[in-house]
Amino acid sequence: MERNPCPWGSASGLSGGTTIGDPNPWGHDRFGQSLAVGDFTGDGKADLAVGSTGKDVWIFKGGFTKTGGAAGKLRLDAKIEPGAYPKGAVQLAAGDFDNDRVDDVVVRSSTGNFVYRGGPTGPTFQTEAGPGYAGALTVADFDRDGRDDLAVGTDFLDIFDQTAKGGYVTVFYGGAAGVGTSRRAVFSQDTAGVPGADEPDDSFGGSLAAGDVNGDGYGDLAVGADFESMGSASHAGSVWVLRGGASGLTGAGGQSFNQDTPGVPGVNESSDLFGNAVHLADHNKDGRADLSVGAADEDSDNGAVWVLRGSTQGITVTGGVSFGASSVGIGKSGNDPMFGLTMPGT
Which residues are bridge partners to 207 per DSSP? Predict the structure, then answer.
């Protein structure tokens, strides 16, 4: 039986924990390949959503203890097409899109992004946010109206999608009825204020992260394009930070970073894939989110991670650092650790 251990935090780090068993071990593989935490039943307790290669997403009810596990479980059968690749619930995300104090859950799969509204008996289907397979999604309140918004990255386009050549991000704004499929905004490298130019196969939107980088209370969005070419360096990669505001996310004042940006450690090289992973979190407790960037193919697949600080003006290169696999004791060249890579669903 596949199990998903849940360690507990403490002043000295993670310790102990409880184990969540797979309720359907014969129905799927990779139980735990995607996770999300939120109060999906509205009882005031944090629940755990767990995905796998199957269409069954399990909601384990809050009330977790180190010895007692979950208080119960609910099964959500997502609208996932059997046999499609990648399989199952590739990514899960939680957000309160209607401000009813009950979290909703989003299931990203190879066939679509499905939003389920939380409720006392568990999440129920509301809508599909963008057809087809998305490279990434994330949740934040970009306009600070009290309702979360959903950002979906469409990094690889089929021949019928003429929205942009190199990928784009769609923001579906929350509303009284949940995710607002009627109020949305689309961002690409051709959007006013977004640095760069829309070019084929950049993979803009292949990775996403949300956080408040300047401490103004509005969610901001980090966007990775790991196939972006910089000069003669193909697939070198780049990252953008777009600002939130009273009217929602905007390209105005957008920032971009790559390894040739002055102050960013390193140098652009072909196939580095800078931006294949992005993350926003406040590492130094100054009230502003810092930007972490992964480049899995840096230094012949050894991989590396960069951290750039948040500031009142946005992300700054001042004090920026980078570190590779060897600095944390992971194998060197020849073992291809791809440090900084995130797999689907993380």
Answer: 224
Written as one letter, the residue type at 136 is A
In DSSP terms, which residues pair with 209 in a beta bridge? 222
Burial class (CB in 10 A: 0-12, 13-18, 19+), 205: buried
Q: Is the pLDDT of residue 345 over 50?
A: no
Decide if 303 contacts 294 (C-beta within 8 A).
Answer: yes
With contact defined as beta carbons under 8 Å apart, do 221 and 210 qualify?
Answer: yes
Q: Cα 160 to the chain's mean position, in Å?
A: 25
Return all residues near 37 (Cβ < 8 A) that are at least 6 apart: 46, 47, 48, 49, 94
Q: How far apart are the first and last CA of the chain?
A: 22
Instruction: Say which residues have a Cβ less than 8 Å from residue 216's Cβ, sequence separation at least 6.
Output: none
Q: What is the pLDDT of residues 39-65, one digit of tens each?
A: 999 999 999 999 999 999 999 999 888
Tally Cβ neighbours within 10 Å of residue 209: 24
pLDDT at 319: 92
